[in-house]
Design brief:
By secondary structure, the chain is α+β, with helices and mostly antiparallel strands. Helix content is 24%, strand content 26%. The protein contains 16 helices and 31 strands. The strands form eight sheets. Strands 5-7-3-14-11-12-13 form a seven-stranded mixed sheet. Helix 4 crosses helix 5 and helix 8 packs parallel to helix 16. The longest helix is centred in the C-terminal third of the chain and has 29 residues. This is Molybdopterin-dependent oxidoreductase.
Length: 780
C-alpha cells in the first residue's frame, strides 16, 4: 500500500500477522514475458541438433569441391568404401531421379554431376562409425577435375558462356513509373557496391536422420521452413512427402535460411542407404562455403530534383550476384527494384534490375534482402543531393518523405501507416551525445582504441541519417497461410503450430495471445514437426502476422466454446462476459467463476487459419500490388572517424521505428538492437571475401563480426504505434528494417566526417581518409 503526502511517498506497513497476497505475474499482450526456454539455454541444457544422439549412430562427412568451376571427369570412391568402419558412400548416381532442388527454382543438384559451379559444392557423402573415419574416407575419394575459368564478375555473366542449363540470367525487371523522359533542374549520380554478408549463425549446420520402418526417413534439424524442406527432401529421395518427416530442433540463431539443404539431403540419403541413424555436424568452414549469403550488388543511380530539392525522377541500375544457383534471388530482386527509391515521393522512376548466376558462393534469403542494398545507395544519393544544393542531410529527406496514400514506383498505393516524417523528426530532435573528454580513459573512445588510434586531433565526428523500408510477408502472389490449434484442459493451454521459433519471439507471442484471450496463465507451445499443418517460412515477420493471427483466431473460437454455455444459462450474449486473470465475470457482476470451473473437466480445442489479402506479381514494367504491408525506420548515426587512418567508431545510433503495436517491450527492444548491430557489421566489417571464386578465410577469424566492444549506444528514441488495421494485433515486423537502415546511416555519418563519397560497403579504411568535400558533390 502506498500513498503521497505533499509530494513525498509514504509506505504503510501491514499489521502483524496480516499477509498481503502476492500479485500474479503479468501476462498477455504488451507485457515483457521471459522465454520459456531461457533457463535451459542459460544453463546449457537446451537441445540443439548438434547435441542429438541415437542408438547405432553413424557419422557423416561431405566431400566438397575445392574449385569454383570445374568439369568432373570421374569420381572414384573405391578407397573410401574399403576403409574399415565406412558403411556407405553416396554420389549423384545414388540420388533417385535427381531433378534438382532449390527454395525458389529447382536448379541445384544434390551432388554435383558433370560440373561443379561454386567452391564447396557437394560431390559425395560418407557414413562411418566415427566422425574422424567419415572425414578421412571423404578425403580418400578421388575426383578428376578439369578446371574451368570461373565467372566471378556479375557484369561478365551477360556475355559469358552459360554456367547452368537454365542460363546465366535469373530475372530481369525493367520498372517504368511516370514519365521516363522527365528531368530535374539538378542531377546527382553515384556508383555503389555492397559486399557479401554472411548470416554467421551462432551454431553451424547440423542434423540427424533416422530411417523409418515404412521405408521413409525422419530428419531432425534446425529448419526454418520444415514443410518446404520436407517436400524438397521427398522429391530428392524419390519418396512420397508422407514418408519424410522433418522435426525442428532448437534453432541457434537464424537471420537467413537457417540450414544448407545439402546437409539434410546427404543425411537422408545415407540413412536410407545404411538403415541406421546418421548424424552430421558441419564445420564452420563448411558452413561458410555452402549456406546462402546476402547478395553482393552493384548499383548505379541518378537522382533528378528541382531547385528546392524535391525529387523529380530516380534512375537506377541494380545488378545482383546470385552465385551458382537461383535460390530466392528473384524475390530479392523484386524487393530491390520495388524499393529502389526508398520511402520518398518520386513522381517518375526508371529502374533496371538483374539477378545473374556466377561461380561465386551461393546467395539467398537473408534479413532485409534487396532492401538493404538499395537503401545504402538511395541514401547515398540523398546525401549527394543535399551537398549539391547546400541543404542539411535531414532537410533534404524531410522535403521528400512518403506518407500513407502515396504511391510506390510499382504503382501500389501505400495503404498501411507510413509515419516516415514523424520518425525522421524524432531522430533529428533527439539530443546528441557528448564529445569525449580529454582524459586517458577517453582514449578507449577513439577509433581503434589506445593502441590503434592516431592523434586525437585527427578524429572528426560525423552525424548521418537514413530512412529505410521493408515489406512484410511474402510478395508477388505468394499464398501466405498458417494453421494453428489451441487446446485448453484444466488450467493449462497448449498451442500447436508449425511456426518455428528462430529468435523472433513467436513462442512468447503465442503464449501471450492465449493468456489474453482465455485468461489461462500456463500456456505451452508444442514442438514443431511436419505432422502438423504447414505454417510457412520464418521470414519477413510472417509468423507474428500470419501464425499469430491463426493462434488468435483459434483461441477466440475456444473462448466462444467456453463462454456460450454460461451465456445461455444466464440469458446473455458472450460479448457481455469477460475473462481476466483466470476468472469469468459478467458486465453486471451476476456471474463470477473461474475458467477451470467453467471447463468442468472438459477439454476444449479449435483449429484456425490466417491468410492475408492476396498480392500479385509485378508485370513486364514492374507494376503491381506486390506487397501485403510495409514497415519503416529512421536512424541517426553519430560516428568518430580518424581521417588520417580511416578507422571508424560508431558512437551512437538513435532509432525511431514504425512498429504498429508493441506486443512484448523487452523482446522488441532486443530485436531492434540486434538488427542495428547486424547492420553495423554490414557497414564496417562483414564481407566474405573471394579470389576468383575461392572463399578466403572461411572462419570466424578471417570473417569479422561486431562484438560487444564494437556495438555503439543504441537509443530507441521513438516507437510509433499506429496500428495496421489489416494485421492481427496491428503489429509490424520489427527486426529487418533496422538491419536495412543502419548501414546507410553509418555511411552517411562517415561522409559527414570525411567529405568522402563512401559508395562501398563495408567501408574500407582507405575510403574514410578525408579529402576535399567537393568530391562528394553532384553534377549539374
Amino acid at each position: 500500500m502506498s500513498g503521497t503526502t505533499d509530494g513525498a511517498a509514504v509506505t504503510a506497513t501491514p499489521p502483524a500477522g496480516v499477509q498481503i497476497p502476492e500479485e500474479p505475474p503479468p501476462h498477455g499482450l504488451g507485457v515483457s514475458l521471459t522465454p520459456a526456454e531461457a533457463p535451459a539455454k542459460t544453463e546449457g541444457t537446451f537441445p540443439y541438433a548438434a547435441d542429438l544422439w541415437a542408438e547405432g549412430l553413424l557419422w557423416a562427412a561431405v566431400l566438397r569441391s575445392p574449385h569454383p568451376r570445374a568439369r568432373i571427369r570421374s569420381v572414384d570412391v573405391r578407397h573410401a568404401t574399403e576403409m574399415p568402419g565406412v558403411r556407405a558412400v553416396v554420389t549423384h548416381e545414388d540420388v533417385p531421379g535427381d531433378k534438382g532442388h532449390g527454395r525458389g527454382v529447382a536448379d541445384r543438384p544434390v551432388f554435383a554431376r558433370d560440373e561443379v559451379r561454386h567452391h564447396g559444392e557437394p560431390i559425395a557423402a560418407v557414413a562411418a562409425d566415427h566422425p574422424d573415419t567419415a572425414r578421412l574416407a571423404a578425403a580418400a575419394i578421388v575426383v578428376e577435375y578439369e578446371v574451368l575459368e570461373a565467372v566471378t564478375d556479375p557484369q561478365h555473366a551477360f556475355e559469358a558462356e552459360p554456367l547452368h542449363p537454365d542460363g546465366n540470367l535469373i530475372r530481369h525487371i525493367p520498372l517504368r513509373f511516370g514519365d521516363a523522359e522527365a528531368v530535374g533542374e539538378v542531377m546527382v549520380e553515384g556508383f555503389y557496391r555492397i559486399g557479401r554478408q554472411d548470416p554467421a549463425p551462432i551454431g553451424a549446420e547440423a542434423g540427424l536422420a533416422v530411417p523409418r520402418p515404412d521405408g521413409g526417413v525422419e530428419i531432425y534439424t534446425a529448419s526454418t521452413d520444415p514443410h518446404g524442406d520436407r517436400d524438397l527432401a521427398a522429391a530428392s529421395f524419390g519418396l512420397d512427402p508422407a514418408q519424410v518427416k522433418v522435426v525442428v530442433t532448437g534453432v541457434p540463431g537464424a537471420t537467413a535460411d537457417r540450414e544448407d539443404p545439402s546437409t539434410q539431403l546427404s543425411l537422408g540419403l545415407l540413412a536410407l542407404r545404411t538403415g541406421c541413424p546418421v548424424k552430421l555436424a558441419a564445420t564452420r568452414e563448411e558452413s561458410f562455403l555452402t549456406h546462402a549469403h546476402r547478395h553482393p550488388t552493384l548499383l548505379r543511380y541518378r537522382h533528378h530534383a528541382d531547385g528546392d530539392g524535391k525529387l523529380v525522377k530516380v534512375e537506377a541500375q541494380i545488378l545482383m550476384d546470385a552465385g551458382a544457383y537461383a535460390d530466392t534471388s528473384a524475390e530479392a530482386l523484386a524487393a530491390a527494384v520495388s524499393f529502389a527509391c526508398g520511402p520518398y515521393v518520386v513522381p517518375h522512376a526508371v529502374v533496371e534490375g538483374w539477378a545473374v548466376r556466377t561461380n561465386n558462393p551461393p546467395s539467398g534469403h537473408m534479413r532485409g534482402e534487396g532492401a538493404l542494398q538499395v537503401c545504402a545507395a538511395y541514401e547515398g544519393q540523398m546525401d549527394r543531393l543535399a551537398a549539391h544544393l547546400g541543404l542539411e542531410p535531414d532537410e533534404i529527406r524531410r522535403r521528400n518523405v512518403m506518407a500513407t496514400g502515396d504511391l510506390l514506383p510499382t504503382g501500389q498505393t501505400v495503404t498501411c501507416p507510413a509515419p516516415v516524417a514523424e520518425l525522421l523528426r524524432a531522430v533529428t530532435e533527439a539530443p546528441l551525445p557528448e564529445l569525449p573528454k580529454d582524459t586517458p580513459e577517453a582514449e578507449w573512445l577513439l577509433p581503434g582504441g589506445p593502441e590503434g588510434a592516431g592523434e586525437p586531433g585527427a578524429v572528426r565526428r560525423g552525424v548521418g541519417y537514413a530512412l529505410g523500408m521493408v515489406h512484410m510477408l511474402g510478395a508477388e502472389g505468394t499464398d501466405e497461410v498458417s494453421t494453428a490449434t489451441v487446446k485448453v484442459s484444466g488450467s493449462v493451454a497448449t498451442v500447436i503450430c508449425a511456426a518455428v521459433e528462430t529468435g523472433s519471439g513467436f513462442a512468447m507471442l503465442a503464449r501471450q495471445i492465449v493468456q489474453e484471450t482465455l485468461g489461462v496463465e500456463e500456456v505451452h507451445v508444442a514442438g514443431v514437426d511436419t505432422d502438423q499443418p504447414p505454417a510457412g517460412r520464418a521470414c519477413h515477420g510472417r509468423h507474428t502476422w500470419v501464425s499469430g493471427g491463426a493462434v488468435e483466431r483459434a483461441a477466440k473460437m475456444v473462448r466462444t466454446q467456453l463462454l456460450q454455455p454460461l451465456a445461455h444459462k444466464f440469458g446473455m450474449s458472450t460479448e457481455l462476459l469477460q475473462i481476466t486473470d483466470g476468472k469469468i465475470t459478467s458486465y453486471d457482476g451476476v456471474l463470477s467463476t473461474t475458467v477451470a470451473e467453467a471447463l468442468d473437466g472438459k477439454e476444449l480445442w479449435a483449429t484456425a487459419q490466417c491468410r492475408p489479402h492476396p498480392t500479385e506479381p509485378l508485370d513486364e514494367t514492374g507494376q503491381g500490388d506486390a506487397f501485403v504491408g510495409l514497415a519503416f525506420c529512421a536512424i541517426r548515426c553519430v560516428a568518430d572517424v580518424d581521417i588520417e587512418l580511416g578507422t571508424v567508431r560508431v558512437v551512437e545510433m538513435s532509432v525511431a521505428q514504425d512498429v504498429g503495436r508493441v506486443l512484448n517491450p523487452r523482446q522488441l527492444q532486443a530485436r531492434i538492437e540486434a538488427g542495428v548491430t547486424q547492420g553495423l557489421g554490414a557497414a564496417l566489417m562483414e564481407n566474405l571475401r573471394t579470389t576468383r571464386g575461392q572463399v578466403r578465410h572461411p572462419d570466424l577469424t578471417g570473417y569479422a563480426l561486431p562484438t560487444a566492444l564494437d556495438a555503439p549506444d543504441i537509443r530507441i528514441v521513438k516507437l510509433v504505434e499506429e496500428r495496421d488495421v489489416v494485421a492481427p494485433f496491428g503489429a509490424k515486423a520489427a527486426s529487418a528494417v533496422p538491419v536495412v537502415t543502419s548501414p546507410a546511416a553509418v555511411a552517411s555519418a562517415v561522409r559527414a566526417a570525411t567529405g568522402r563519397p563512401i559508395g562501398r560497403l563495408p567501408i574500407r579504411p582507405q575510403a574514410a581518409v578525408a579529402q576535399p568535400v567537393q568530391s562528394a558533390q553532384g553534377t549539374q
